[in-house]
Amino acid sequence: MTTAPGQAPVAPPVPRHPLDPDPVRSTKARAVFALGLMAVLTGLFVGGVVPATLALHLSRQARREAYASGGFLTGAAWLRRGERLAWAGLVLVAVSVVAAVVIGVVRLAEAPYGQDFAPHMD
């Protein structure tokens, strides 16, 4: 059955089996998003490593569970957003660590080397 000559055929909806569960959002997807948000917010203070790694680990588990559920677990958009936020948090941590190392090296290079004697001493 088609609706117009240029459109794709419309398939009738497939009836659901009465014992099929209702599609629900994965609770892990919400947790991944929250942990990713915390990773971004605390990323510059190096505290973002912990929530970011937890978010990435939890997102892997949530993806496996969603695949095994056969489409009855939703929340893939929340998972994607949470993963992106977690990776952004890790990038912020890396930037802050690199900046701290560069500042430390520059300050170490500016410090006097060895003992500093008075100008009239040999």
From TrEMBL:
Positions of the UniProt region annotated as Disordered: 1-23
Regions that span the bilayer: 31-56, 85-109
Keyword tags: Membrane, Transmembrane, Transmembrane helix
Protein name (database record): DUF4190 domain-containing protein
Naturally occurring in which organism (per UniProt): Micromonospora nigra
